[in-house]
Amino acid sequence: MVVTGTPVGGGGGTYTVADVLTKVRYEVGDEDANNYPNEELISYLNDAIELLWARLAARAPWFFDSTAYIDTEDYVILDGTADYALPSDFLLDRFLDLNGDQTFNLKATDQLVTGAEGYLLNEGNIKILPEPTADGTATLHYIPKFTRVTETTDTLQLYDDDVEFGQALTSFIALKCKMSNREGPSGSDALFNLMNTVVMTYAAQRNAPRDRGAKVTYHNYS
Fold first, then answer.
1. Residue 47, C-beta contacts closer than 8 angstroms, at least 6 positions apart
2. Three-state SS for 200?
């Protein structure tokens, strides 16, 4: 799983947690680190990325397809067994390679019809449809949950994938600092709206592609 590491997306630099904290301290007037310990700011940074990550997955999941964020889970498919456990860090599916063929979530693509080839997600499991009639293999491609950073030396790939993301993360943390000192708005609405707006703008500016749709194969069971 790649959540931190060398950026592959946007501005060409590598940002560490320390770099972000420096920007935040400038924003809140704490360049000497007298008011906000690193642990507090890292906690805010994690909250910011976690919210941005979730909004991207919900509103622009195709963003993850062109980065190193997609993770995979391999399965050994057994004859007569349709249900398999999702990985523990699973957040959102993208597609399933089933015996070399790319298939999709039938419910998400509104193509849940008798005989359709694909899969469904249910209570921590992936169900392959139709039920396998032979042994085989499958690989699930999915967006993992965000793994929180802990050290100032950790690098932040997401921070550099789009300039607006970096600005939004910095603003989010600065706002959390002000909220902690009762200098800013109360509640989480302002924080959520900040991330939601930047993600919606990102998606609109890049003309989100159409859903790829399910690969539908009809089987004659007669």
1. 172, 176, 191
2. helix
Torsion sign over Cα 13, 16, 19, 25: positive
Q: What are phi and psi of 102, to 5 degrees?
A: -80, 125
Give the DSSP letter of residue 159.
Answer: H
71-77 vs 83-85, strand pairing mode: unpaired
Looking at residue 168, the DSSP 8-state letter turns out to be H
Task: Please say whether the beta carbons of 95 and 104 come within 8 A.
Answer: yes
Name the region of 12 (left: φ>0; alpha: ψ -120 to 50; beta: rest): left
d(C-alpha 1, C-alpha 131), whole Å: 29
pTM higher than 0.90 for the full model?
no
The model's pLDDT over 139-160, given as tens digits with 9 standing for 90+, comes to 999 999 988 999 999 988 777 6
Task: Please state the domain extents for the chain.
Answer: 17-66+148-205, 71-144
d(CA 112, CA 197): 33
Amino acid found at 217: T
